[in-house]
Every structure is written in C-alpha cells, then in structure tokens.
Fold each of these.
Amino acid sequence: MCSIVFDAEVVSPPSHLNVAFFEDVLETALRTTRVQMLTIHIRMGSSTGENYCSQIYRANVSFKRPDHPEQHMAFIVKSVPHLNSVEFIEDLEVYLKEKITYHEVLPRLELMMQCKRRFGPNKMCSIVFDAEVVSPPSHLNVAFFEDVLETALRTTRVQMLTIHIRMGSSTGENYCSQIYRANVSFKRPDHPEQHMAFIVKSVPHLNSVEFIEDLEVYLKEKITYHEVLPRLELMMQCKRRFGPKLFQCIKRPESTLVFEDLSQMDFVMASREIGLDEEHCLLVMERLAEFHATSMVLAVLDPHIFDAYADGMLSPRGLAKDDGMLMRFFSGNGKELHNLVSSWPGFERIAEKIEKYLQNQRCNLVRSQAPQDNEVKVLNHGDLWVNNMLFKYDTAHRPQDLILIDFQLSVWGSPGIDLNYFFYTSLTLDVLRHRRPQLLRCYHARLAKTLLNLDLGVPVPSYEQIQNEVHRREAYGFFASYGIFPTVSQDKAQTADNNLENFKDEDFAKHKVRQMFESRRLAETLRYSLPHFERAGVLD
C-alpha cells in the first residue's frame, strides 16, 4: 500500500496523478519493476503566475528495492489542461514536439557528444475489426491510434478516416502476446488521402505467463526501443536498422507496443520449419556482430544503460517456481527428450547422462546463462531464432538486409548466448553440421571491423576468444536444442492452438510435447547435436 499526499496549495489536482501513474514513472526511471512505492508527496512546482499555460508540480517518491534501504526520487510533473483559452497550444503541437524532442532528439544529440553533454532534463473515424479478431482489447480505439499516428507523422495536423485491424500472425505462432496489424487511412492539409500500417503487440495480464512480469519484459522492450536501438543505429551512422521504430507503448490496461509495419518495406519472415541456409546465416552473423559491437561501445559511453538487462530467458527468478510456466515447459520437454533418446540404439550412454542432467535441471539451466569470469560482454538479443528476424530480398530472392524484432528477453552477457541459441534453433542441419566455423569467422570479422571503425578504444576480442565464448556456452545450445527447437521445428498444421494459456492444462501440454518430439527434422538434428554436446562435456 502506498499513500499519496497533496499539499494544501495544490488545488484540484489532476485525477490521473495517482499511484499507478507514478508507479510507471518510477519503473521507467529505475529501469526495473522490482520496486515497492511507499509514499508520494506532491506540491506545486512553481510560484503562482510563473507558468501561464501549464501546471508544474514537484513529486517526491519514497520507495524500497530488494536488498536496498529506503530511497527517494524527485520528479517534475508538467500538466497542460485542455482549455479553450489556450487553443494555440494545440495549434502549435507543443505536446507532440516535446515528446519527440525528449524521446528521439536529445538522446541522439547527447550520444554525439559521447554522453559528455546534457541538452535537457480527431475527427469522426470508423474502426473495423476483422472477424478473426476475437475479443479485441477495448483500449485499441480511435483515440489510441490518433496518438500513434501523430507520433509517427510528427504532427497533430491530421484527420483520421478509417482504421482496419486484423490479426498479425498465424494462430499458435506467438505464445505470450497477441499481434495485430492496423491499417490507418488519414488526410493532412494540402495532401491527398494517405495510408499507414502498424504492428500492435499486446500482452494480456494472465496468471499463466507470470514470468513475463518476473523478467520485466515490457520495461525491457520499452528501454530497448526508446533508448538503446536509436543510439546503436546512430553509431552506425544511420546506415543500419537493428529494429523497427516504436511509436507507442503503454502499460495499462495491458502492456501494448505499436511499431512500424516492416512488411511495407518488403521485409518478411523466412521459414522456421525449413531453417536458414548458409547465405541467410552469413547475413545474420554480420548484423548480429554489428549489434553486439555497438552495444559494447554504448556500455563504455553510458555504463548504466544495460542495468535493466540482468535477466534473460534462464534467469533464476524466471525459473524459481516448479509450477511456473517456464519451468514446467522446459521440464516437460526434457522428459520427452529422454524418452525419445532412450529408444535409439547406440544412444544408451547419452540417455543416461540426460537423465542425470534432468535430476538437477533448474541449476543446469541457470548455470548455462549465469555470468562467468573474464567473459566478453555484449547485449544479447536473447531470443534469436527465425521468427524474430525479418529479411529483405532482391529480385533473385537472395537476402539483402535483415531487421531483428522482439527484444523482450535481451540479456547482457557473453555473445555465446546468442550464437549458440541461433545455431541450435534456426540453421538447416547441413549448415549446422558443416559450416559453423565459417559462420563464426564471418561474425568475428564483422565484430572486429565495427569496433575498429567506431574507434572509441573498445578492445577487439580475438577469434580465439569468440571461439571460447561459444564453447563455454555450449550448455545454452543444449538447452535451446531441447527447450526451444522442438517448438521451432513443429509442423505449422499442429500449432493452431499453441499458446501459454492452453499449456496450463497438463494433458494438453503432454500431448503437444509428444507431438513436437515426433518431428523428423528434430530427430535428425538431435542425432547429430547430442554426440557433439557429449564430446563438449555439456552432459557430464
């Protein structure tokens, strides 16, 4: 319970300045949801008559974090009421202008100064949902998309005409979220009718996906798209796009993020069922190396920027509960792996080692991601598999460009995390078996080139260091091979009812896991990868 107190001088305080409002503010400021607010004290922030168009308040918040004493943080709140007497505020788009300045412009200007300088502290519109959109979220309304469109266009001088919303991904392709595609038609002064497309990612609050809050995935994506990616792209002199633009993010009534629709720029997904050939993989290695290299530099320029990225997919908090969604899912997959391998002649010793591994599965999973001494550290994407990459092709259908999506499980740590996860979830078996050294050479060459071009004194890891990082994280590859790859290789016809809410049902989960492990591609890949993991000592 948190108390909120307004000074007597605060006459008619805005109703939205409540505990929930400041909770979101504090989480964003601290880059963590692990915080308990205690008190909020609000007083006027300027003398009467000093601000003509706005009300300025000072908010002092006391709070506690795990293993910390009580702390305090102060904020300035600027509120501009909607009054007919100040209609010029809307005419001059002052709210939108400040929003863009603080979110987009100032962080980039400050990065140019290498963080040594600080520059600063609708009309009638119809909305139509396709029949396939069952129970659309009520907050996806005209007012919501008006704000999205104004941010995307950087102007409030726009009249929305129609909004058409349909599902954005096939049923069963997204476990934790609902993806929608929104097409908006609009008019601007002296322009013909125009259209803009958006991707809306909405994460309902469900008990079955409690790990989403445990791992702070909404906050992590918010920080990634608002703070991290723009800086990384600026380091590449805006010649690289690491992710889509984020136009809107709200935490309530449910976590929702709105992105540009990259399909409008001809970016598409490759086939997860087939896997990526060598040409695709080499492009992934180049882009991943650039992403990792720029993150290494950003960590030097802004040492606390990655404080929010301590938890990844296999963090102790995400796996803490035996009956938690992640632990139950990985445990079920582990048991089915043991059942499958036990039926293969010649794999008796490996089956026995898998059985011992599963007796201490949680510790083995946590250890595979846990920080190690003297390791190279980068920002890992954290969920680097086929469906989280969008490719652009030339007329001969050869991949020319790549953009990453879904940064909700990103983690600061060894590049071996991303590399092993990618190798054991996304490659064709032929590439995995024969071309891994070439992929690592490509990755290292681009990593070194990027760090040298940035010329900010960040040491360039040797090729042997990168090899060692991958070897030390082979256990992460083993986890990916049985915890993630069975889902990746599953036939699309079997995935229509795949979602985490359904996986709460024990019988459903067992049936689905058995179905996944019947995949021929999975069996062929495991027959190659398991002896490799045994030789690497992962199963000992």
Note: The mean pLDDT is 89.
Amino acid sequence: MSFGECTITLQDVAYQLGLPVDGRYVSGFLTDFHVYIDGGRPAWQWFHELLGVLPLANQIQKFAVNCTWFQETFGECPEGADEETVRRFARAYIMMLLGTQLFADKSGNRIHIRWLPFVARLEEMGSYNWGSAALAWLYRCMCRVANRHVVKLAGPLQLLQSWIFWRFPGFRPAGYDAFSWPLASRWSGYNPGISEKGPRVQMARLKIDLLQARDFIWMPYSTPDVLQVVHPEVLEPRHTMLWWCVTSLIYFAVVEWHQVDRVLPQFGGVQPPPHPALNIDFLMSQEASERLCP
C-alpha cells in the first residue's frame, strides 16, 4: 500500500477464527499414502473403520471423496445414537470442516483422506497448530492466484474476507454492526448477489487505487467492545507472544514465512525501514506433485 505494508498475521487468525496458533505441526508423509498410513494398513480400510461406511467408487477421486457424499451420509446424527456412532459423525463433520473451510482446494467440493490420522484420535485434535497451518495455506493460495493464468482462489477465504472488512472500513457491507466470538462470524449472513459482480469489482479496484493511511485500521482489536467478546485464552501471554514471531508456517509440504517484522504498526509498533523480504522460492520448489500437497 502507499502508506506501508500490511498483511494477515497469526493475531488475525486467533481473533477472526479462534484457532490455536501454537501446538504440533499439521503435517505428515503423504508419499505412498496408502502404504504408510497407520502402520501399513490400507487407507480405505482405515476409512471404513473410522467412519463405518465406504463411499461408492464414483464418489472417489484419487484420495478425495466428494463433499456431497459426506453431507448425504453424515448430515444429521441419529437421535439416541451410541458413543461410537457419535464419534463417527464427529470425525466426518471435522473432515468436512477442514476440507471445505480451512483447507479447501479450488474445487471446493472434495475432502481428502489425509485427515484420517488426525480424526482417528479426536482427543488430540486440539493439540495441533491449526491456525498456523490455515495461514500457511492462505499465503500459498494467494501466491498462486497472483499468476495471471490462475482464475480461482482456494484457502480459508472467510479469513481473508473478514480481515478486509475489519481493517478496511470502506469495503464493509452495511448493516453488520453487531459481532460476537469469533470475530469472522460477524459477516456470516453476507452474500453479495452475482448480478452486480462486474461493477462491484471495478469499484473495488478504484477504491484500492485511492486508499490512504486513514482508510486502514492498524489495530482493530484494541477497542473495548472487541476485548469484551474475545475468549480469554486467546489473550494469554503464551499465545500472544507468538503473534510477534518471525517464523515458518507449515501445512504438510507448504512452508510459508510469517514476516511480522514488516508490519509492526499492526501491533502498535513503529515501523523502521524493513530488511529485504526473505526469498523462499526454494521452499516453494519443493512442492512438487499433487499427491504430496493439497
């Protein structure tokens, strides 16, 4: 921007989505996935054991299952279901949440079975760094879409949209003044019509070209009305100290860099002349094949 750099950080992930930003890496060995999963057991056999049912062949694309199958099969947990049935529905719901919201691909309608090792141990789901992984995936998707030949954007787009609305008041839709926790839920009812897409895009581009420093809110989370709805655990020092860290963000083979040293005003700091941006092209070159990455 003409007034300085700004970006989505782990702080935004914590406030907007309420996700943990520390914990175990969301990663794993996906090469020959069917061989190495859970000690050599066939992946689809494990799928059946964890979810109690297998999709038909026409619902499977490589190691991904159509989202419609999940919705039709696990749309509503039966009343009075036993504990094992509830756990199966919980696993399916979490896989849908991960595959269509936080780590969606451009299709938006497939769920990869890479999540089996995670949902197999439901009690450990909270020990993973989901916030860092989601931000890594968003960074990578935004990098990809910068290529003029790429026409669709994947990733946690609700995070991107909410970050824009919270920090750029001029882009906010009218009528969404009330908010609760997590902050991204503020815009849950927002659904712009496609009939005005052309003029809306042109107007947004013009607004971006005319942006001034006064049009950006550096610290939107410091107001009392925001602090009173935030979950108190988010503000614990063991979490907040990570917002300032210049570190790697990891999501399977995706490795991105959290360069908050270039956006210190977002944390109430004064921005000195930044060092040259870290070149991580060598990390992106490691993301070789589709079977290794999302």
Note: The mean pLDDT is 89.
